Amino acid sequence: MVLLALALIFLPFIFDGQGSYQDTISSRIPDPPAVPVLSEPVPTRPLIIADTEAVRVTEAAESTAEPETKPTVAVTTSEPAFTREPPSFDDNGLPQGWSVRLGSFSDSANAANLLQRLQAAGYKAYTRVISSDQGTLTGVFVGPWIDRLRVDDYQQRLQDEFQLAGIIVRYELERL
User: Which domain holds residue 155?
Assistant: First the structure.
């Protein structure tokens, strides 16, 4: 027992670690890259003007006889010559559009039948539930378009093709 107590007292002095060699540890992992923190982007609402044809602009060549004259610019469009009005915006900042209402049906199956015929003919058609004095009706619409003059053309086309005298109404977003 005495020997054990002496061993516990003197062994730490003998094996204190002085004079021993310890290899330094090095890493091959590179330092993390310095990445700059970018500011948060500010979302903006784009202005979309739909149903417009591209405008082709051509420049006439300068006349060699008159070097001081400027080139002329000719602007041509493939659409009829009428003045396009810029779209008006609602309270939410969205452009206001126009649709053609072709009918209001008390039987939703009749509305679905007309909707299917319109979509098969390639028109952008949709239905909405309308509350009226006669009860709940299902309205069938084609559109919307931003350009009011283009809607007149579609109204006439729809009347010729489907024999339905539609009326032009403002497009309203459906509340969810």
Answer: 98-170
